[in-house]
Write a structure and sequence with these properties.
Helix content: 40-55%
Strand content: 15-25%
CATH topology: TIM Barrel
Strand order of the largest sheet: 1-2-3-4-5-6-7-8
Order of helices and strands: HEHEHEHEHHEHEHEHE
CATH superfamily: Aldolase class I
Number of strands: 8
Mean pLDDT: 85
Radius of gyration: 17 Å
CATH class: Alpha Beta
Low-confidence stretches: 231-236
Structural class: alpha/beta
Distance between the termini: 30 Å
Number of helices: 9
Shape: globular
Largest sheet: 8 strands, parallel
CATH architecture: Alpha-Beta Barrel
């Protein structure tokens, strides 16, 4: 069944949303207000800049809103050791979700082992702290074949989500990309849309993009297939 106002609860919708606070010009007051807004609406998480993790964790302590941050953002071509250090500091500050960007140039060069190792290194750090890793592809720069390879490498490396984009690239999520990514990973890997999801209708459409695959997986006894959407407000 296609998701609709009639079939979804408020919490169903709220818990698909990550509230992004990533733009470089946001001041402390804006970040604080954004975290409080996320708590008021009980969304899934906030995704803040690494320098804001400790502040966000303090504001959201005791709420059901998770704190996430970015790794290797927004271009992905940091050294793996740098990404690992970023991840360690973020986790120590209270982040429980890490949105890392793949080594885009390495993927396009066919250096798949390097891409997988880069993801796996961050996943290892996150797993040790009970955190999750959302792996960003920046699909605007990739061919469909490269997107599929990125999905396979993410799953092999233990990533929890595949994510369409940073929101700072030329374009954001498309329904075609979401369907392609959903087909290219197993049911336990979730799919996340970022950029361009600004209205309820757009959010429902993102949810519908994976709903039928979710149904098929559950019927086959494979468990739930997830999707998330990240709104553009204040971040993307």
């Amino acid at each position: 069944m296609t998701p609709s106002i009639e079939t979804l609860t408020y919490r169903d919708v709220a818990k698909t949303i990550d509230h992004s606070l990533l733009r470089p010009e946001l001041d402390d007051a804006f970040v604080d207000a954004g975290c409080r807004l996320a708590a008021a609406y009980d969304v899934a998480s906030v995704c803040v800049r690494p320098a804001d993790v400790v502040r966000a964790r303090a504001i959201l302590e005791g709420t059901a809103v998770a704190v996430g941050t970015t790794i290797g953002f927004p271009h992905g071509n940091h050294l793996t050791a740098t990404k690992v250090f970023e991840a360690q500091r973020a986790l120590a500050g209270g982040a429980v979700e890490l949105d890392m960007v793949i080594q885009i140039g390495a993927l396009k060069s066919g250096r798949d082992a390097d891409v997988q190792d880069d993801i796996a290194a961050v996943v290892e750090v996150a797993n040790g702290a009970g955190a999750i890793v959302k792996v960003i592809f920046e699909n605007a720069y990739l061919t469909d074949e490269e997107k599929v390879r990125a999905c396979h490498l993410t799953e092999a490396a233990g990533g929890d989500f595949v994510k369409t984009s940073t929101g700072f690239g030329p374009s954001g999520a498309t329904h075609e990309d979401l369907a392609l990514m959903r087909r290219s990973v197993s049911p336990h890997v979730q799919v996340k849309a970022a950029g361009g999801v600004r209205t309820l209708d757009a959010l429902l459409a993102v949810m519908a993009a994976t709903m039928l695959d979710d149904f098929k997986a559950r019927k086959a006894g494979l468990g739930a297939v997830g999707s998330q959407a990240e709104p553009s407000q204040a971040g993307y």
